[in-house]
Design goal:
Layout lengths: L9 E6 L7 H12 L5 E6 L2 H9 L6 E6 L13 E2 L1 H6 L4 E4 L5 E4 L2 H11 L8 E4 L3 H13 L4 E5 L2 H14 L3 E5 L11 E4 L19 E4 L8 H8 L3 E3 L1 H17 L6 H18 L1
Parallel strand pairs: 1-2, 1-3, 4-6, 7-8, 7-10, 8-9, 10-11, 11-12
Antiparallel strand pairs: 3-5, 5-6
Length: 284
């Protein structure tokens, strides 16, 4: 509870590469808005080989939690005392909370963060959806869609191996998943909700195929922004949810879990993230 929050605690984001992460900007903005003057949030370049050593060297009592990005979301699981059902559903942990009794528990705020970002734009139920890409982010997208999509989800992928992965995730998450070849990815745009989970530049060639008055696009990238696909989508009158929306909403949940303060200051965190991205663009 707020009155029980320790006067000085540490948190950080771990991953590789990590220099680009906006997490310190968001969490520090939250601490400032909440008046947590003694709290700090840093970033550390950590990969699978150095993760166990890093966790083992953390002094007890100093740390409130960790944010995890690639490639650590699955590697961390054997090193924890337990994980939430949400994290277990996709075998991915992006949040570690250190409890007062010394336990390290893992959670996944990406999935509820996706749902919160969509809900903020008025998307609460759809009768079908499409996912561009496969992999860890796509599995989180399927987990989110399992809660709001009443019909089929079509995943557009580049290989049969990826297709098999998405089918397996669909079975595990009880989502009706159909797979299609990436060459036909423009067919995704007839769905009322399209989730793009691919790396920067991958969907650029699809921008010219966006129809008039499309549905909602959730593009998980936030830098560079807007992507060509997101810009074309917006130009044609479609609603766009961006990677910064996801990043902020999942960070809000992390702050609440790590600090015990709820609700976390969403507006202050988003403003800080937007300002940081503008500054990066100006520098570039």
């Amino acid at each position: 509870m707020p009155g029980q929050t320790p006067p000085s605690r540490r948190a950080a984001v771990l991953g590789s590469p990590i220099a680009h992460s906006l997490s310190p900007v968001l969490h520090r903005a939250a601490y400032e808005a909440l008046g947590l003057d003694g709290w700090s949030y840093d970033r550390f370049e950590i990969d699978e080989d150095t993760l166990a050593g890093f966790l083992g060297d953390l002094p007890e009592g100093d740390w409130a939690g960790l944010s995890l990005t690639m490639p650590l979301k699955r590697a961390v699981i054997p090193l924890l005392d337990g994980i939430s059902d949400t994290a277990a559903s996709v075998e991915a942990v992006n949040t570690v909370v250190f409890t007062d009794d010394g336990r390290r528990t893992g959670d996944n705020t990406d999935i509820p963060g996706m749902l919160a970002a969509l809900r903020e734009r008025g998307v609460e139920k759809v009768d079908r959806a499409a996912v561009l890409g496969a992999g860890a982010t796509a599995s989180s997208a399927l987990a989110a869609l399992s809660r709001i999509c009443t019909g089929q989800v079509t995943a557009f992928v580049r290989s049969e191996a990826r297709a098999a992965e998405m089918r397996q995730w669909g079975e595990r998450l009880a989502v009706d998943v159909a797979v299609a070849d990436w060459a036909d990815a423009a067919l995704a745009f007839s769905a009322p909700l399209v989730v793009a989970t691919t790396p920067a530049g991958t969907t650029d060639a699809l921008a010219a195929s966006v129809p008039d008055l499309p549905g909602t696009l959730f593009d998980v990238l936030y830098e560079p922004w807007p992507t060509r696909l997101a810009a074309a989508w917006s130009d044609r009158g479609g609603a766009v949810v961006g990677g910064l929306d996801l990043l902020v909403h999942q960070a809000v949940l992390q702050v609440e879990r790590m600090t015990g303060h709820a609700p976390a200051p969403l507006a202050a965190m988003r403003a800080a993230g937007e300002r940081a991205l503008r500054e990066r663009t100006a520098e570039g």
